[in-house]
Every structure is written in structure tokens, then in C-alpha cells.
Design goal:
The protein is an alpha/beta fold. It contains 16 helices and 24 strands. The strands form 5 sheets. An 8-stranded mixed sheet has the order 6-5-14-15-16-13-17-20, with helices on both faces. Strands 8-3-2-12-19-18 form a 6-stranded mixed sheet.
């Protein structure tokens, strides 16, 4: 029998990210994954700014950019009748190069470049997974067992026992660990066997995806390289997605009519009809799926089904929530789950955190999943509504059709505001968490379209550039928060130094290192709002104050889960 500290079921982007989070902290981790290669179907295709910030800590950004869409191409969302027909509207965001190299004109035009080092990064899941796997496999404490299928799991008061099968040899592998994390997708075996259902709207409507290879695709439609191409012809509602910007593409065919069969479809007819012209292609894969707004009722499994306290099994990613893809938030929410749970498990296993820290995982992340899934579902509703109101003559000749296109364009402009989603990805915060010390001030507005930089406890600590070389390698305030606890001190006077060291001693008493950063930049001082700002290992603010906390020992015990 193998023994480890954490077992992860599933090596998709969430499970692999969790393995990296644990592995970089020296936690012995075994990942059970049935597949032997990355996902054939690209599935999720957007990395939001917060996920990119997390991957920045591990130096993965260059590899991600190398496998993303061409770095010099702006992020384009195009809306047309048929793809080769009339374009009605387009939304443009900065290219990777504009973002990475901090292009001055782009920074002035696109305000999201002021809030993060990253904008939208389009990369297929099939291209992303190997990057995270490769990094995880460089970590000595991580063992990814590809080609192994979970057969059973059993929880006791002090461990979880797992049985898996090598899919090629049939050999049985048994693993035991203090904790198990289910990252095994929407059909999660662990979640279903644990009797945990979803809540929310559930399955919203059916879709079918066609993943295809075509060097002819860009030439035939004539719209140039874009990231998303929406089609509004009434027999072809859906969206084409660029996977590598050269020859790999995906078409999501929307079934707005729930009486329409999704079986026995003529995929060539569907593709040619949506484009508006025939073209050369090779179909690589198809997939039936649904838009969802579903969140698991419980994210932790205890020995007692009615009480998850002290449970040793957690859910993360699609095992805990299913989204509509409108907004690109599903995978990114899962990556946030992995980072939140990863550092907390590590602190607990190393004796630097108590049960309250583990209990805070569901308390913090479940409301974010509800928030994000509702935003995504609302986005889907808006698209569906505009499509449902589209006239059947939209792609025809004549004045009536022209008027219909003009009216549709105005609706698309209204609906397309959802693609300004920086606030969704960066502006979430943890409210009423038992391991955050709030200061009694009002919570800032939560706007999906914009970020209001703040150090309000529970929020992501703000980004600001600390160097000005504009070469993609500059230092950000985010680089302070790579692994451990950090205290930002906005003054250099002697009394503040004494107070900082009092807090450092309180951390040291719990065998935790505290890094102290003294600010010498007036812009950053103003951005961080308080004289003292304490930031957690995940980059979220744990406490802030104009004066040092009156009881540093009690503060440390609270934020590490020892005092609830």
C-alpha cells in the first residue's frame, strides 16, 4: 500500500493546479487520473487574469503564452449573421503582447491593464493541461498516476483509503492519506458516491460541440483571426472558438429549442450552414453537453452525512460546480478552489493551521461559485434572449432584412457588455470568513465589469508595478505573495518597525514565518489604504489597520483557524 499526505482524484486543470499548490509547499501528493494524455477536446479555453496571476508564481506564463493564440493578435469577439456573411459588431481587447509588454497606447485604451499584469488569455484545455502536468512532475513530492481509474474510497476517523486500477495492466493500487480531494469533474464519482447533489438552476439547455482541424477556415469566412465568432442566423445559433489560431477550431451549436433532437446530427451540414460556405476540414471530436448553473450542496464529506466537520474528503472544480461557459469563469473558479484549499491543507498538515482553516474552504469558495455561476447563467440568458428575438430573414437581401440587422446590432451591443468581465475574475472577495479579521468598514461594490482596487479584508491584494522596464519581466506587488504570509507596512518610522516585529513574533510563536515589506512608494501606499495590511499565502487580505492589532497573538490564532 502507498502512503501519502493528499490524494487528488482527477488531473484536469483544477486537480493539476492543486497538485502544484501542494507540491510547491512540500506536501506529498498522489494524483489518480484515468487518462494517459491530455483532454482531446479543448473544453475550457479562457484563462482569466486571476488564474494567470496564480500561474505567474510558478513561472508558467511563458509556456502558456507560447501555446496560446498568436501573441500579437488582439482578443476579438465577432458577431455575424453567418460567419462568412455580414459582420454586425465586434468587441476588441488587448493582445497578449500589448498586455505583456505594457503597450502605452493599450494601457490608456483598456483600463483592465491597470488592474492586473494579465488580460484574457485564450488557450485550449488540451494545450494547458500538459503545461501544468509538466511543472507538477518536476516537484519531488508529487506523483501523477496517469492511466489509473478510481474504483473505491473509504473514509475513517484519521485517513482515506483509495483503491485504483491501472487501466492497461489491471493491477490494483491502494493508497492511504489523511485527505482526499475530488477534482473528477461534473460526473464526479466521489461526489455521487458520497450522496451529494447539486443545487441551483441545474441543466439550462443542450449544446453540441464540434472540434475540427482546418487550414481553410480563416480563408473561407474572411473575418480575420478572432477568438470567438458568434453566429446569429436562426438555423445556426452558436459560436466558433479559436483553439490555436491556425488550424484548430471548435463550434458550439446552441439548441435554443428544447424540442429539437441533439442526436443523429449531420455535422457537415451544421458546420457549412453556420459558416455559410463549404470548406475543407477534419472532424476531431464531438461532445454533447449542457449549460449549467449548479453548485454542490456540500463541499466537504464527513463520516456523518449530516455533519461534515472533520471530514477528510473535499470537492473542487466541476465536482463542486458546473457553469455556462458564457464568461469563461468555470475553469477559473476551479483554479481558485485549488489555490484556496491547497495552501490551507498544507498549513494544516505542517501544524501551522487548525481545523478552522479547513472549515473555511467551503465557507469562502462556495459563495464565489454561486456568484460566478449566476453571472455566467445571466450572461447565457442575455445571449439566448437576443438570439430568440432574431428574425429568420436576418441574412437575406432587402430593406426589411437590413432593418432587422440594424435592430439586432443594437441588441448585441447591449448584450456584449458582459464580455467586460475583469470584475468577475478579479473582484471577488471572501465575506464572513471565520479566518479573516474584518475591520467594520463597508464592503466595496462588486461590479462584474470593473475592479475597484481595495485592501478590504477578504479581497485580493491590489496589483501595482514596482519597476518600469516594460519588458514583460517587471516586478508587481503580486510578487510579494508567492508562498507565505506577508505584512505590508506603509511607513518606515521606528514605532511601526516595533509593531511589525510584535506581529512577526506572534507568527513565530506558531512556527510561521512572516515576511515584512516596508513601502517606499507613495502610489502603492495610497493603493494599500492602511498603515498595515496582512496578506495570506493566496494573496487575499487577512487583516488591515491604521494601527497594529491590539492582540497580535489572538489575530494570528484567528487567521490560522485556531479561534473561531
Amino acid at each position: 500500500m502507498l502512503s501519502t499526505e493528499v490524494i487528488i482524484v482527477g488531473a484536469g486543470p483544477v486537480g493539476a493546479t492543486l497538485a502544484c499548490e501542494l507540491g510547491t509547499r512540500g506536501i506529498r501528493t498522489i494524483v489518480i487520473e484515468e487518462r494517459t494524455t491530455a483532454s482531446e477536446h479543448p473544453k475550457a479555453t479562457l484563462l482569466g487574469a486571476r488564474s494567470m496571476e496564480y500561474f505567474r508564481r510558478w513561472g508558467l506564463v511563458p509556456s502558456i503564452y507560447a501555446n496560446a493564440l498568436p501573441n500579437d493578435a488582439p482578443y476579438v469577439i465577432s458577431f455575424s449573421t453567418r460567419l462568412a456573411g455580414e459582420e454586425l459588431y465586434r468587441v476588441t481587447s488587448p493582445s497578449i503582447n500589448d498586455t505583456w509588454k505594457r503597450n502605452l497606447a493599450a494601457t490608456e485604451k483598456f483600463r483592465e491593464l491597470q488592474w492586473s499584469p494579465y488580460g484574457k488569455t485564450q488557450i485550449g484545455q488540451s494545450q494547458l493541461e500538459p503545461i501544468i502536468w509538466n511543472f507538477a512532475q518536476t516537484l519531488p513530492s508529487v506523483d501523477i498516476k496517469l492511466g489509473h481509474l478510481l474504483q473505491s474510497f473509504q473514509q475513517s476517523h484519521d485517513h482515506v483509503h483509495v483503491t485504483a486500477t491501472d487501466v492497461q495492466t489491471g493491477q490494483i493500487v491502494e493508497v492511504q492519506a489523511p485527505f482526499l480531494v475530488a477534482c473528477d469533474g461534473g460526473g464526479s464519482f466521489v461526489r455521487r458516491q458520497s450522496g451529494i447533489g447539486y443545487m441551483g438552476r441545474g441543466a439550462m439547455r443542450a449544446n453540441m460541440s464540434f472540434y475540427f482541424e482546418s487550414e481553410d477556415f480563416l480563408k473561407v469566412h474572411g473575418k480575420g483571426l478572432g477568438n470567438l465568432y458568434f453566429c446569429f442566423a436562426t438555423d445556426s445559433f452558436g459560436v466558433f472558438t479559436a483553439i490555436n489560431g491556425r488550424d484548430l477550431w471548435n463550434y458550439q451549436y446552441y439548441f435554443l429549442n428544447d424540442k429539437k433532437s441533439t442526436e443523429n446530427l449531420d455535422y457537415q451540414e451544421i458546420l457549412f450552414r453556420a459558416v455559410g460556405k463549404p470548406f475543407q476540414y477534419k472532424l476531431k471530436a464531438t461532445q454533447h453537453w449542457h449549460h449549467h448553473q449548479s453548485v454542490a450542496k456540500n463541499w466537504r464529506v464527513g463520516l456523518n452525512p449530516l455533519d461534515s466537520k472533520n471530514g477528510r474528503i473535499f470537492l473542487a472544480g466541476d465536482a463542486a460546480h458546473l457553469f455556462a461557459p458564457t464568461g469563461g469563469v468555470g475553469m477559473n473558479t476551479g483554479i481558485g478552489d485549488a489555490v484556496d484549499l491547497g495552501w490551507k491543507l498544507a498549513e494544516f498538515l505542517r501544524g501551522r493551521g487548525a481545523e478552522g482553516l479547513l472549515a473555511s474552504y467551503e465557507i469562502e469558495r462556495k459563495p464565489i461559485a454561486i456568484r460566478n455561476s449566476v453571472i455566467s447563467a445571466n450572461n447565457s440568458d442575455k445571449i439566448d434572449m437576443v438570439m430568440a428575438e432574431t428574425s429568420a430573414i436576418i441574412d437575406q437581401e432587402g430593406e426589411d432584412a437590413k432593418l432587422c440587422r440594424q435592430q439586432l446590432t443594437e441588441k448585441i451591443k447591449w448584450m456584449s457588455r458582459q464580455f467586460s468581465s475583469a470584475g468577475t475574475h478579479l473582484g471577488y472577495r471572501y465575506v464572513d470568513s471565520p479566518v479573516i479579521a474584518y475591520d467594520g468598514t463597508y464592503e466595496p461594490p462588486d461590479d462584474p465589469s470593473q475592479v475597484i482596487p481595495t485592501t478590504w479584508p477578504g479581497s485580493r491584494a491590489p496589483h501595482a508595478w514596482l519597476t518600469n522596464h516594460r519588458n514583460g519581466l517587471d516586478v508587481s506587488t503580486l510578487d510579494w505573495f508567492k508562498q507565505g504570509w506577508t505584512l505590508i507596512c506603509a511607513t518606515q518610522d521606528h514605532s511601526s518597525s516595533t509593531e511589525c516585529h510584535q506581529l512577526k513574533k506572534a507568527f513565530a510563536d506558531q512556527k510561521i514565518e512572516l515576511v515584512i515589506i516596508t513601502l517606499d512608494n507613495d502610489t502603492v501606499r495610497a493603493l494599500y489604504e492602511r498603515k498595515f495590511v496582512l496578506v495570506r499565502p493566496d494573496g487575499h487580505v487577512a487583516w488591515r489597520g491604521h494601527v497594529m492589532h491590539q492582540s497580535p497573538d489572538l489575530l494570528v490564532k484567528k487567521i490560522t483557524g485556531q479561534v473561531l
